[in-house]
Structures are given as C-alpha cells and as structure tokens.
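Sample entry (632 residues):
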Amino acid sequence: MQNYLELVTAVIQQMKKPDSPCRNIQGHQACYLSFFKYMLMNDIPFSMEAAVEWLELMKPEWSDAVYASNRKIMYRLEHYLLFGNIKAPFCMTEEFFLCRSGMSESFFRLAYELEEYYSVEKNPGYYWNYSVSFKEFFKIATSMGVTEPEAITIDVIIEYWDKYCVSLESDLRRQNSVSAMTVLMKYLHKRGDVPRCYSLALFNGNAETLKSMKIASTEDVFQPSSSIEVKMDAFLEVLGNWKYKDSSLNVYRNDFMWYFMFLEINHIQHSEESMAYWESVSFDDPKHTNSRYSLSDRRHHAVRLFDSFLKDGMRSNRAYKPALQSDSLPDWSRNILAGFVNSRRLDGMAEKTLVMCRTAGCNFFSYLEKTGVTSPEEIIPEVVQSFHNQDIHSTPEAKNAYSIKLRQLLRYMADEDLVPSTLAYAIPTTCAPRRTIVSVLSDEAVDKIYEFRENASSPLELRDIAMVMLGLRMGIRGIDILHLQIHDFNWKCQTVSFVQRKTGTAITLPVPTDVGNSVYKYIMQGRPQSADAGNGYIFIRHQAPYVPFSDGTATCKGALKRVLGSYGIELPAGQGFHMTRKTFATRMLRANNKVDDISNALGHVRQATAEVYLERDEDKMRLCPLEFGGVL
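Predicted structure, serialized as tokens:
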C-alpha cells in the first residue's frame, strides 16, 4: 500500500503546482481515499486492474456525473504511473485504461506519442479522427504477439485489414481506417520502425492483391525490404541525373514499392530467385491485353534495372533477362553447354563471343535431340557432318565462324573425356566464299533525302537527317556517327576527325556544307539538354535517359527508315544504314574518282576493300565484257 500512497501524494503535489489545470484537489483526495479503504477491506494489493474493477463495482451506487469524475481521477493516476505527469485527456470508457485496452505498454505509450505529435505538428483533429483505428491496430498487433512498434511486419497490417477493416459496414469508415493505417505507417517509418512500403499495404485495396502474391518459401526474413529500400533513392538519383522526368521517377518509385511489399509478404530476400518469383506475378487487366508494353512488363523491367544498379551501378537503362534457348535442352546437353561457355568465359572471351558459343552449341544439341541422340557416346562423325551440312547461314563467313565455335565445343567435350579427341576433325575447316553485288540507294531515294533535309523541323527530324547526311555525303559508318563529339568538328577548317571504331585508325574528312549545316542545325535547334553522360556527344537519346546511344547502328538505320518512309520508300530486305556508305562510294566512283581516293575517303585499311564498289559503275562495266570467241 505504501507505493499507492506515494503515487497518490505525487499526483496531488502535481495538481498543487501553479501551472496545473487540475483544481479539484478535494475530489481527487476523496476518490483515492475511498479506493484505499476498498483495498484495505478486501486485503488486495494496488493495481490499475483492481481500480477499474472498483469503479465498475461502485457504478450503480453513483450518479453518472460522479462515476465519470472518479473514472477520470483514476485515469489520471494511471497516466502519472506511466508517463510521470498528469496531462491526461478525458477518459470516456474503461478501455482507455492500459489494463483494459488490449494493447501492450509500448503501443499504449505510442498512442499518447501520436496524440502529442498531431497536437504540435499537425491538426489535433486528425488524431481523434484516426485514434479508434490506431488503437484497433495496436490491439490486433498485441494479440499476435507483436508488442513493440519496431517488431511490426506486413502480416500485422493484413490481419488488421481482415479482422477490422473488412468488418466495417460503412465504406466511409473503412476508408477512414485505411487512411489511418497509411498515416500511422508513414509515422513509424519516420521513426525508423518499419519499411517505407508499409504505408501502401492497404491503399486502394492493395491488401487483397498482396495476399494473392503469396508463394511457398522456406525463408523467413524479418522486414527484408529494409536493406535495399535505402538504395532506391540512390537509384532514382541516377535516373534524375539522366534527365528522367519527375513523373517517370514517381512511376519507378511506385513499382519498387510493389516489389518491396512482395518481398515483405513472403519474407524473402532480394535475389535472382525472388526476381524469378516476381516475374511470375501479373498486374495486367485481362480486359486490356493488347498493350505492347504491359504494366507487368514495366514492373518486372524496373526490378531488373534496379538489380543491375545494385550489382554494377547501372550503365544503361536496358536490363532484361532473355529466355535462353539452352533452357529447353535436355539436362545432359544443357550441362555440357554451360560448362563449355563458362570455360570460354574463364579464357577471357567477350560477351558477344560467349553468345555465339552458346548459340552454336544450342543449334548443335537441338539437332542431336531431334535425331534421337541422347548421350555424348552416341555422337559420331557422321552425325557431326550431317549437322554441318544442314546448318544454313546467310554468308560463308558466318558459317565458318559458327563452325569454329562447334569445333571448340567438341574439343572441350574431348578434354572432359566425353567424346574422342578426333571428333572435331569431322567439321570442314572452310566454306566456299560467296560474293554479292552491293546494294545502294536509288537516285529517287537520294533526291527524297535532300527534299526531307529542306523540310525537317522537329527535333527528331533534325537528328534523323543529320545522321543520314553524314552517311550519304561522307560515307561515315553508323557506329562512328553515334560516337561523334562536338570537339571532333573543326568548324573553321570544315573538317571532322575521329578514330574509326571498326579499324581503330584515325581519319580526318572534309565536311560538305550541307552536312555541316544539318549537324549544326540539329545541335542548335533539335538536341535536348543531355545528362552528364551525354555531355560532348552530338547525338543523344530524345527520351530519358538523355545519354549517348549504345554501340550498334540500329539507331542510324531507324533514322534512314523514317526519312525514306515519309515518302513511302522501304529499305530492301536485309539492308540497313550501311547502304548510305555504299551509295557514297558508288557515287564517288561514278564521278571518276580513283579507287585509292575512294578507299581513303572511306577510311579503308586496304585499297582492295573498295574494289567491291566497281561492280556498281554499270556504264564502265559495259566497256569491258569478254568476247565469246572460243566459247561457242
């Protein structure tokens, strides 16, 4: 009883202070004394549980006003016991007492912390609007064995949805309970108790979607998104540096929140396996399935891109996991191929070479499967030769290249004692060369390109025609055009100097006036402000990220197709931007330029490389036919 008397004395002393708003000291003393006598008569120790039972026991004997006053007096006593002050709000029911609240002490204290936070930082009315929902959540969490805010998981939020929100008959009350959870989780994230994504767990009916994303997993990781969500901001900062718009950044942020919630609902770490699970989840509306780039595609791509950032800092915004042809091979051949590709990787081969090794191996093993070969022992020279004979490629050079990779595969298998060491000799070492006449743009197509140049006005049109003019009028390869930088041009001398990507040799070329004007006009009127990575480059992407194009001439080919396509002219099958270079060389030849001059203009290492263009000078070719004498 001594502790009770000391507690009561401390409360009375607090009330006697000049700044205390509580003045009914006699009423408090009378109430505390009555409860003290009750404990003595019944020989029970002090507890707030006993105090609440006493209030309920005496309720029939008191008027409503006396009962409400005494309940408030005892509530102030508990508040002092918990918080060391008497600034307690009005107590409406016995559930306001900790002993009857169904909450852990930590959550009970958190409820007062929230009330103070809203009264100081926000609108106090918001707390009372959400307080019932806050306390219902705290009760549910406590019933699940979660007694501290930092121990909350997304499962508690889903349980709150199932047990409380769904039971509410009014849509307005249900929406209020969801809003309460959103603001509560934002507050707890600010405190460092829960991951950021928890605030979206119930928004817009997300709870039901999350429940459908549950998978069978042996992991049980606590708040798995916490370790990577802090890196999301760094990722978005990179996109910001690439000049992505704020609206795009918000889309990515939302996509990551969904992935983080997926990790949370399944308690799994971010990994290749988790991404594979993630890519099995569909977010698309079955009613709208015709989109080329669906919501699911975008969200799966976003996570692959984020994973690329986590691994190597993300050098490009292109991240995908293509389905491998080798995935469909039988186990025995798939394992052999994986070992072969890995051995080539350890030899330091470039990624493009590894892709060719994998493709050559896939084609070979797929053929073996079709012909009934089920083990290395069944691979005989006749089978290898049969595959080689039916393996069709567009050029002899391509067939030779793939044959080399197949011989390497057979030698690897021989080193592993899977096939005889002589089996690689079953593949011929050469193929008969094939030569085709080069394709060039027609005079009509060239005229339309010049017409397009006169009318180009939009940023994309200015970029397209500048690229095409560099190829058509100067014979520059597409790959070199994409890597041209502003300092490569000497505008005073009307020249451009650069190192050719294909040959590694430096070259300086005169810049025709129409080409220089097209490039200058694009720079001044069409080129957007670039990201840091695009500084100095002439040609950059016109959609975020505003960076240089990756290696390859697909961009230049696209420019040529758009320019010609505006006049209904299509590129011949199998032809690309290289036609502009062939056209440039052919037109030089028809203008009576010497072959060595053409070779120099094209940057060829050997003059013989330019001789292929002789075939396009039809007028001069007619001057040198062989006579039929001795033939007939």
